[in-house]
Amino acid sequence: MRHLLIAMLPLPRPSVFVPTLTRVSFKLLCVEENQCPIVSRGSPGKAWLWASSSPATVLTVVLSSSCMQDPSSEESVLLSYEMVGPGAGSRLHWFLLMWPKVQLNLSSFVLQVTAKTAFLFILPQYNVSVPAADSETVHYHYGPKDLVTILFYIFITIILHAVVQEYILDKISKRLHLSKVKHSKFNESGQLVVFHLSSVIWCFYVVVTEGYLTNPRSLWEDYPHVYLPFQVKFFYLCQLAYWLHALPELYFQKVRKEEIPRQLQYICLYLVHIAGAYLLNLSRLGLILLLLQYSTEFLFHMARLFYFADENNERLFSAWAAVFGITRLFILTLAVLAIGFGLARVENQAFDPEKGNFNTLLCRLCVLLLVCAAQAWLMWRFIHSQLRHWREYWNEQSAKRRVPAAPRLPARLLKRESGYHENGVVKAENGTSSRTKKLKSP
């Protein structure tokens, strides 16, 4: 029977961070659930372990061995180690008493005491086994514990945000020598390019593997879609974590006060739409709409990055302007088709929050109104910005035309003398010089 134990051993603080070879002598403690601590029979074992003696002055030693149960013994574990290398000569003896439920999970290397709490933060909760044709599949539904998972991934997203900023964006912006305003917009677009690109790839993979593209009827058939596959639920949790992390990032990134209202608008819009699709069990439709929206936003922020690198490069803006209008049309069409027509034909027309059913006329109208209002607002802002851009362009062109040309000075008329020139001397037509000859005095 195999067991693992962990011992935290204080080490002398080394001057540098160096790998250290440690020889460990130990008596292993077998730990079983609902039993008292027991000690293995036989002589102590010995092992050579590679460890890192970091400035934390703590060495984590993981021991593994076969052991036999001895319920009559209540000894503590005798563990000693001897350092070989920079810390040679130091020898410590430790007596560790292990309690019943302190057992290391071999698959995840997490102690049982903290495993459930760790899984609550790391993995999606509320898993349910759903019978399938051949076997059972595990699906998930939502609940209050999802907030804990979202909180954990908010911190993960903040760390990733800092890594992208430190190792990618800051190095590029130093070469471009941007102003403060452009530097702030460059950082915003750079972060969103990374997020939108990864989200588009991830969302496209989920949509294809789940078959939502090949079967559009699945967007409304079998509603409510209470039980979600793992990848669908995890995608939504990560999306909510990202847009929630964007709120404190406004403070961490020291965003200008003039930019905060604009950024708060689109952050809140994303949160409302993603949370609405997740809570109202419209996850399939939400995935398709997010795929379209993120594709357009990725193109826009890429155009901004190229513009900051070269102000004469505006071709991507023209491509984005064409794609933007088409995307609004597709989003409105899909929303009306799935919510207005698809869900209206589903037999289960009832309001039952316990079962996740919100398929009523009032709910459908509210969702459609929200989607249409958001798309209309985005389209109005797009048209307004395009008109302003064109107005500025024509003003610049007209200003160039109104600039008066520099007055041309009249050409000076050269008075040519009669005769012809020979070697720079004007001579008369009869061959004599035009200059008067000096008379010699007698």
TrEMBL record:
The keyword Protein transport applies. Residues 414-442 are annotated as: Disordered. Pfam families: TRAM_LAG1_CLN8. The keyword Methyltransferase does not apply. It is found in: Membrane. Signal peptide: none annotated. Belongs to the TRAM family. The gene is TRAM2. The chain crosses the membrane at residues 147-169, 190-214, 234-252, 264-281, 319-341, 361-383. SMART domains: TLC. This is Translocating chain-associated membrane protein 2. It is a multi-pass membrane protein.
